[in-house]
Amino acid sequence: MPRATASDIDSCGLSLSELQELWLGVGHNGSLFRDEDELRVAWDRARAVCMRLWATNGKRPMAWWYLEAPGLGLKWPGYHCQQSYLFEQNALGEVECEQLFAGWREEFERASAIKDPVARRKHLDWADVPHSLRRRWSASARRRRKRQPVTLPATLVEEAAAGPE
Questions:
Q1: pLDDT for 88-144, tens place per residue?
Q2: Could you tell me how far CA 82 lies from the centroid of its own chain?
């Protein structure tokens, strides 16, 4: 994850606590901003820094979800579903998609080895693998299995060649 530098903080004129609120949302003691207008001004000043630091790996700062996502027709999906939601909504950049894609494919392959369908689905949910990719990869795996020739054990081949007793 990129790190904030002193120049980042100086460039936007916000305190570390204010930047943290833009990133993580309002703390348990309430907002550091007097009202939504002050929050919007702070976001405008610090947006570039916040997006560079925290709009990574398919996740977005809470201020983005609160102030920008509704204008894009997006709703907060919950912390653990941001990646698949933003992917399904075509709201991620190409590089970010490629990075996530590799990890999702790896988790899909791991889940494919799980025999219990409920446990397999839970693993894919935990890994936040988008449903569109699950369907595509599952269909591809079914097609591969159909194309593969069936190889019988040698004993069955010998029995078949010998004919009925």
A1: 999 999 999 999 999 999 999 999 999 999 999 999 999 999 999 999 999 876 666
A2: 6
| CA gap 140, 68 in Å, rounded | 36
Q: How many CB atoms neighbour CB 88 within 10 A?
A: 15
Q: How many CB atoms lie within 10 A of CB 100?
A: 21
Q: What are phi and psi of 27, to 5 degrees?
A: -80, 175
Given a cut of 60, whether residue 156 has pLDDT beyond it is no
* CA distance readout (Å), 147 to 141, 143, 144, 151, 152: 10, 6, 5, 12, 15
Residue 133 makes CB contacts below 8 A (sequence gap 6+) with 87, 101, 104, 105, 108
Distance of CA 154 to the CA centre of its chain: 46
